[in-house]
Each structure stands twice: as C-alpha cells, then as structure tokens.
Amino acid sequence: MKTPLDTFFDPKSVAVIGASNTPGKLGYIAIENLMKIGYAGKIYPVNPKVGEVLGLKAYPNVRDIPGPVDVGLVLVPAETAIGVIADLADKGVKHAVVVAGGFGEVDEKGASRQQQMVDIARKVGMRIIGPNTTGILSTPARFSTTFQAGVELRPGPAAYISQTGNFASITFKWILSKEHFGISRVIGLGNKCDVDDADALEYLETDPETKVIAMYIEGIKNGRRLVEVARRVVKKKP
Fold first, then answer.
1. What is the pTM for the complete model shown?
2. What is the pLDDT of residue 179?
C-alpha cells in the first residue's frame, strides 16, 4: 500500500540545495555520501556560485533543473530556507528534508520562520521532514540525507524513528560498528514541523523491509493519534 511518505525513501532524484565543492561542508558530504553508498537516482547540486560539484552539473536554482525532482535536500541556513521551500514549491517538489536548525527549537522568531515554511508547503501539498535534523537513511534505496561523513550500509530488518539528529548520525555509526543486526530505515524527525512520529510509524507499518521498529521521542505533537497508530502497528511489528 502506498503512503504519502514513500517517495522520501525511494526517490528517483534529489536536489541538494547548498551543494558545495569544499570538503567538510554539509553540501559536499551529503553528495559524497550518496555517491559512496551507490545511490542510483539523479543528483542535482544547487548552488548559484559554481557550475559543477563533485563532477555533477550544478544549477543556480532548483527551478532551473530540467527534470522532475522527487526530494529537495535543504542544506542552507534557516534564514534562507523559507525562500528555498518557495522555490521547491514552484518546481512542484512534494518532499523536502530541511537540515538547518534555528527554527522552532530556538525562539519565537525561529518558530515564526518555521510556520512560514509550513504554510508555503501546505499550499502545494509538500511534505517536510525536519527542520533541525539529519533526515533519512533508506538502505534498500541506498539513499541518505545525512551530512555525517562515512555513512555505511548494512541491510537488515530494524527501523528507527528518532527526534534527535544525533541518533541518525553518531548513534547510528555506533550501531553499525558494535551491533550485529542490519537497518532498513532511519527517520530523523527533528522539530517535526510536518511529518511526525505517527506519520513515520504509518509508513513503516507497510514497509516490507522493516520487521521491527524502535523509537526515540523527546516530545509528542498529537498523543492520541500516536497511540492509535501504535496500537495498530504493534500487532504487525514489534
């Protein structure tokens, strides 16, 4: 059964807004990770100051990309992310991962900025994971949005939903090096401005690659819905 989040975990193309040729920068590591783990989809670097990133043609704006874009990976600072979400909306992109902090977790100004971003997305039916997150790892699709260097893949049945970005980065690397089971998906939700725990659980409910689900939750937006979804999912997957 298809869910609204499927494209996040098996995209045919990704635009990396904030792509960089500087080793160590988020926009360099994210693209390097995709290449190293063997992502087979199209990677579109977006940076108005360069013509090429890691051998890939770069575009000044996501609107200039000639083909369709399944996922927009937003690596720019919070103050410019709103404009990027507007560009993605104009392009018709329906899925975005926003990495930057400086939104609702900081202060009222950040919360207002976050709400502006959500308002733009909702007008066009765009779903957002984040902000303030490392985002996604999807082992079957060999797809990642993390900016942590040296991502490895070990396929397996365990999926993780986490509110903190550290889980999808530091803790994840510890699991791969110290534990003996593989991973299907990691979903770092961050501030949960749109996609939340219940949404992620519903996706994993029908994901054939996932047999067991772990969650790390710091706060809950809609407790009643989360309990309803969890009661249903736990009958199928522990």
1. 0.94
2. 74
What local confidence, expressed as pLDDT, does residue 169 receive? 61
Name beta bridge partners: 43. 14
Alpha carbon distance 94, 121 (integer Å)? 8
Looking at every residue in the chain, the average pLDDT score rounds to 93
Residue range 145-159, pLDDT digits in tens: 988 887 778 899 999
Helix (H) or strand (E) holding 116: helix 108-124
Q: Show the tokens assigned to 162.
A: 């986490």
pLDDT at residue number 203 = 98
Residue (of 49, 50, 48, 39) closest to 14 by Cα position: 39
Contact 137, 10 (CB under 8 A): no
Could you list the beta-strand ranges (E) of the chain. 13-17, 42-46, 52-53, 56-57, 71-74, 95-98, 127-129, 136-138, 143-144, 155-162, 183-188, 212-216
User: Which pairs count as long-range contacts for 34-39, CB under 8 Å and 24+ apart, including other chains?
Assistant: 34/143, 34/144, 36/151, 37/142, 37/143, 37/144, 37/151, 37/152, 37/153, 38/142, 39/14, 39/141, 39/142, 39/143, 39/144
The better pLDDT of the pair 176, 124 is held by: 124
Report the DSSP beta bridge partners of residue 44: 15
